[in-house]
Amino acid sequence: MYRYDEFDQDFVHARVAEFSDQVQRRLAGEITEDQFRPLRLMNGVYLQLHAYMLRIAVPYGTLNSKQMRMLGHIARKYDKGYGHFTTRQNIQFNWPALSDIPTILADLASVEMHAIQTSGNCIRNVTADHFAGAAADEVADPRPYAEILRQWSSVHPEFSFLPRKFKIAVTGAERDRAAIQTHDIGLHLKKNAAGELGFAVYVGGGQGRTPMVAKKIRDFLPEADLLSYCTAILRVYNLYGRRDNKYKARIKILVHETGEEEITRQIEAEWQELKDAELKLPEADIHAINAYFAPPALTDRPEGDAEVKQARLDSKGFSQWLDQNVVTHRHPDYAAVTISLKGIGEVPGDATDSQMEAVADIAEKYALDELRVSHEQNLILPHVARADLKAVYDALVEIGLATANSNLISDIISCPGLDYCALATARSIPIAQEISQRFASLERQREIGELKLKISGCINACGHHHVGHIGILGVEKKGSELYQVTLGGSADENTSVGEIIGRGFSSEEITDAIEQIVDTYLGLRLNPEERFIDAYRRVGPAPFKEALYAGETKAA
Amino acid sequence: MKVLTANRLSDGIAVWYAEGGWAETVGHADLAHDKAAEDRLEAIGAAAGANNEVVDVNLIDVTVVNGLVEPVRLREKIRAAGPTIRTDLGKQASPAVAGVA
């Protein structure tokens, strides 16, 4: 994985020193909150309901065991024993004292981590497919390009005060696991007919109060032109993006209001000025970054097949976990493992200090020291020999992280909601917990099949509800929490925005409503292979509306 | 009825103005029954903000139940108690507050 060079390390240390000084001056009353707020936000420090919150960047979701151990250490020493993994592949701590944050950042810098650009109107943490470098269906590892974008975008002088925040995601496979079409820029790394690497470029996707699916403005951009083209997009946005209204300031609005054809013309015109200048990526630089991401040396472990076969017979739990949480690796003797942070009734994305440390130990012992955070709020061991899967499973059982529910209805994305967040209008986590408990039976979940359920506690949509097969949005209505349901959203290569199905439900009603939707689906699917999203796309909202609201219409 | 609330600058912990200082629990916060009292609390909040004791100062609606102040809105109830999904954390974790929120 990427290692800081001298420049990176100096840069991060300098930022720690600078922010420590700013915190000291703030605590001493030498600068006001109005002066300090933008400075703390540039360093990932928010103020929430109960305390400050620190959001730490995990570039493209990649961590080693030392870094994960440090996160566990921070959770224990400076927080309340846990952290929350987020949909930007980052981690948040909910209770740090402002006076401790300089020390936390110094600890992070010692393991090549930081909290820079995890907030503010700048280019945020670049996300990538969590199976990058391991997936069997990948054309090339997308992370070197995410790293190039990270280096380019870090304190970029021209793009540090954009109209609004800006999010980029990269995938290296046809099957999109990075939700690129919901991003300001989505990049799909691919090969052209000549076998050269490049990108399909999507622009103007996003969620929030105005969800939009990104438009593909280029089918193939040569890899050397990555930075010049992204600069052209950012320049057009920086120049024409609205600054008069926060809610209309994202690039999705500019793309929508300008029109796909015209915005493409503007970007291409800007690019003509840039493409043959200093932003063209030299091949040597691409190679140098790629070298950091060289695949780990995977020794052949052909004994895995027999061992997995035997372990399946010995343990039903292992067998179910294998079916649900383990996916094919490009090396036949290896697999990629999803560590579910969605235990039944647990808080989605939360992990305790000791779980983080134990996961770090597992990664070090069995997974070539590599870990990932997925945007679906789980952890990933990207390279595990099949021969070691049972040992990994047993170790995960011991720390309560072996729930075999990846991609099932209880694998819920949920924002922190009103239990923590100052922007939230309703709670999300208790709803996620109740739904998870209602569908606790793994047998039932597997019968339902792949179902992406996502919950947000306000219209900002941090819980990605717009692109959930079933989405739930919590709002406040007449002083109470009310939950709106959307159906038919999806965040893969066939991205779609869900449609509101009808009137909202109270917190007491919402789990019953979800169950009714699921039962309706089970009743109408053509066969068990027809997933919820496929069935919804075939039949539309009518049968679900009928099931949820028919009684009301008749009564009225 | 309103009380004055904020977060403490040094650690961000939610606090309420009570008896001349900032209390960590809402129960005995100073009540404003009329506009004049609200103005007085607001002035205290503005001064405490300017003095760098607290941030994010707000007046919130409350009621009084069994002699103790309780916020009206769910958001403020949660601030006063702690996360509803982690009753072992926040103000509610302390026995003195557990019965109140």
TrEMBL record, chain A:
Under SUPFAM superfamilies, the record lists: Nitrite and sulphite reductase 4Fe-4S domain-like, Nitrite/Sulfite reductase N-terminal domain-like
Q: Where is the Nitrite/sulphite reductase 4Fe-4S domain?
A: 119-273, 410-548
What GO MF terms are annotated?
Answer: 4 iron, 4 sulfur cluster binding; heme binding; metal ion binding; oxidoreductase activity
> What is the residue range of the signal peptide feature?
none
What superkingdom heads the lineage?
Answer: Bacteria
Keywords in UniProt for this one? 4Fe-4S, Heme, Iron, Iron-sulfur, Metal-binding, Oxidoreductase
Write down a Pfam family by its short name: NIR_SIR
Organism (species):
Mesorhizobium hawassense
Which segments constitute the Nitrite/Sulfite reductase ferredoxin-like domain? 52-110, 335-398
Query: What InterPro entries is this protein classified in?
Result: NIR_SIR_4Fe-4S, NiRdtase/SiRdtase_haem-b_fer, Nit/Sulf_reduc_fer-like_dom_sf, NO2/SO3_Rdtase_4Fe4S_dom, NO2/SO3_Rdtase_4Fe4S_sf
Which named protein is this? Answer: Nitrite/sulfite reductase
Q: Is Repeat among this UniProt entry's keywords?
A: no
Gene3D superfamilies referenced in this protein's UniProt entry, alphabetically: Sulfite Reductase Hemoprotein, domain 1, Sulfite Reductase Hemoprotein,Domain 2
TrEMBL record, chain B:
Q: What InterPro entries would the database entry show?
A: DUF2849 (IPR021270)
Organism domain of life: Bacteria
Q: Which organism is it from?
A: Mesorhizobium hawassense
Q: What is this protein called?
A: DUF2849 domain-containing protein
